[in-house]
Structure formats: C-alpha cells, structure tokens
Amino acid sequence: MANRLKTLIESGQPAIGSWISSTDPYAIEMTADLGFDWLLIDTEHTPLSRDSLRLILTAMRDSASVPVVRLSSNTLDHFQTALDLGAQGVVVPMINSRADARQAIQFCRYPPLGVRGFAPIRASRYLENLSEYISEANSAISLIVQIETPEAASNIEEILTTEGFNGIFIGPSDLASFMGFPAQTSHPKVIEAMDGIISRARAHSIPYGLPTWSEDECLSFVRKGGQLLTVGSDLHYLSTAAKKRLSGVRRLLKEQTGSA
Description:
12 helices
C-alpha cells in the first residue's frame, strides 16, 4: 500500500494539497485528478458524516492524490472509521502534550505498536489485499499531529521528541484565536509563535506544514522548509472563482451602460 505523500515527505520534497469539504462525487473526482499530491478531508469543522467520508474516499479511488482525513477529535473511533474506509493518513487536531501525541500514535497503529481495532474492510480492498495491508499499515499510514494552541507551542519540545508520528501541521487560525487575536494570523505575536514552532520542528528534522491561501504564501513556506502544505480549498476555489466572474460581468455591464 504505497503512500506517495509519505514518500515525498521522507525525500525532503514539498507535498502540495488542498482542503476538501464537499461531498459531490463529480467535484471530488475532478479535484483528485487535478494533480494535487494530497487532499485533506476536513471532518472537524464540516458536517461530513461517516457515509459522506465513505463517498469521498470512494470517489478518490486510484487517483494520484493521497487521501488524508482531519479527524474531528483524538478518539479511537474516529481513527478507525477514517482508516478502515481507506484513508492513507490522518491529521489529528488539538495535540497539546506528549500524552496527546502518544494517544494518537496508539490509536493509529495496530498492535503491538498501538490499539487500533482490526476491520480494514475497504482499506484492504474488501480483504483482497489483506496480507499486504496487515504487513504495511503501521509503517505506510501518515500520522500528522496538529499544533494549534499556546499550550502546544509551549510543549513543542516534548511533542516533537515523541516517536511514532510523521509530521506536524500548524493551525494558524486556532493559534491566533487562543492567543487572543481571532482572525489575526499575521499578528506579530502569532507570527513569533509560529516561527518558534517551525524552528524547533526543523531542528528536530520533523516535517511541518500549514494551510496557505495563495501561490506566493505557499512558496514562502516552501523556502522555510515547509513540506505538508495546502493551498486553498474546494469551497475557497468555488467562492473566489464565482466572485471574480460575477464582478467581471458587472464591470462590463457598467462600462456598457456608461458608454451608451
């Protein structure tokens, strides 16, 4: 069960992804075929159900984009649902301590490394690839822990030195909010906190990433060693493209009316 995202990260290359919140099979299939290295399916802040997640992962089957699920919380049933349905990686929110990180590792791995229950029905292609899945799942699945609070920032050393996960994903919006600067991800104190997290991650050779919203922003973090990067989201693309097209038509109509 080759994991292209894990291969990219381990080779030191950036992996460029996008967020997924919609469930329409056409939209998912189209996005998965665009060439993103990975797609981050958000079950934390969207109303995606287990059945919706099944639909998304089915639509992504055999695409070049690696399906990664952001879990709604660091609990065993959420790991098991995402992984049994075929996710090749998970992003775990609100990892604030070594204990949180160890719990995520336990939930993500089969015994003897962890306590993940055994029922990889779809993940093993309905048991056709069961032997391969059993032998490779613990090493092939990407486990990414999310750093998004001042507590996590202050405990970054103990989190980074916990063995068993594959990278960290910084949450700028939550970090800013918990620091008392809601929606101010560019506040100097937030930037300072993020820079501290990035510095420690790089010192420990732990891959890191975060969401970005433009080509320039994405490139700026690639230059800082970022690897687990997203640029935009399906809802963001829909909104910005529709707004741009509508404003363009309104502008042309106004010009036409003015010239008349």
